[in-house]
Amino acid sequence: MTLLIISPDYASHLFPLATLGTAWQAKGERVVVASGPATAGIVAEFGFERVNLQLGRGSNPGTIRAEDQPTGEDDALRGFFAATRVGLVETLRFQAEARSSDLLWNPVAVAREVQRIVAEVRPDHVIVDHLAFSARLALISAGVRHADVVLGHPTALPVGDEVYGYPSQWPAAFTPDPLELVRLRELCERVRDDFTLQWNDALLQLDPAAPPSGDAFTESGDVLLLNYPAELHSPARTALLPEHAFLGSAVRTEADDPEVTRWLDEAGDTPIVYVSFGSFLSVRDDVLARVTEALRSLQYDGHDLRVAIAVGSTDAATLGPLPATWLVRSFLPQVAVLSHAALAVTHGGNNSVTEAMTAGVPLLVLPFSTDQFAGAAALDDAGFALSLDPNTASPSELREAAATLLALTGEPRQRLRALSASLADGAGPRRAYAALTQLAELPESEPAEDDDDGYASIA
After folding, report:
1. Which PROSITE patterns match (predicted)?
2. What residue segments make up the domains of the chain, in order of their start?
3. C-alpha–C-alpha distance, residues 440 and 144, integer Å
4. Which numeric CATH code is attached to 258-423?
5. What is the pTM of this model?
């Protein structure tokens, strides 16, 4: 049996997608990854086969820098970073206006290359990143059964009256101007309509008999896989989703890092705080500086904190003098550090959230863009996080929020432990394997049904 994984050339996307493939690998089955050259090393580390596929202009092997991107993508990245410094509405407007070039890049050419790869690999199962729209066009137009994976908050697939790019929820710390929100939604609606026209034009070229889409952002595969815990998703919204399975998380196994292992062992009973804004938003050195200032003077149970900071593209020197007991590197093995952490400070990206929930670690969330706002609101509502505006939160506010989360007890702590237990031991890859195996066994017209625990059973 062969699994084909189709991923953008971004480490943050490939890590969870490749982790899902380990369920096939464990059964001795063949796994092939179609992705770009920047992430070839990650594919090799997993021990999978690789075929080259470029789904967009940009790439990211782990830490993204504008100067490393091709012409055009570099300026787009600088524009995005600049927008995050203005605020959430400006950031979401920038992302909306760039949507077609980001998500539907050379759709017909890419789709035909994907179809060529499928014919060459002859997969029994196909997993594709939900945001790889050109690749999904290829599979839909060729009638190839597949699962698409939402690597983010489930609102990445709009339902009901939602509009892609317009968050359905905001954390309480954010109070955007109502008029600006009206204008943002209008923009997202125009982008949706333009994007759908482009989707339908490409679909017509690939399959003239295919019915056009009314909203390309609502299109999904034969089964939708959500790399997100069902426990954090509204049951009312779950009822509106197409055939789906909540995977919970896809936590990768990391190679041992002796320096990090020694540092973790030396901590003893001292609380560890992990800080990371992911591969993109680590560029926000001003926010990292305020976070480090907040944590520098914070104690818990009479202990100074030990802090591990993945600074990414930020120069650590800009953060000022840091305690000798802190661990500061460009990149850290996030899964390993989270397994020892008492708190994590994050931008609210999908990997950070799902890996922290798997480790049972509460979060101080500083969301910047896209689905991070809805994800932060869900975490706040569950009592597992506190969210603040990264552009306005002061060191004292950050310090107070961190202290509150370090002291998390009672019913929220018990629920967080229960969630952690439900996500442990590779549950996500096993759920993906079950969903794809059942899908392959179904007649073309047979629908899916939800089972008792809220995960869709493709049977």
Report:
1. UDPGT
2. 2-71+99-251+426-457, 258-423
3. 11
4. 3.40.50.2000
5. 0.91
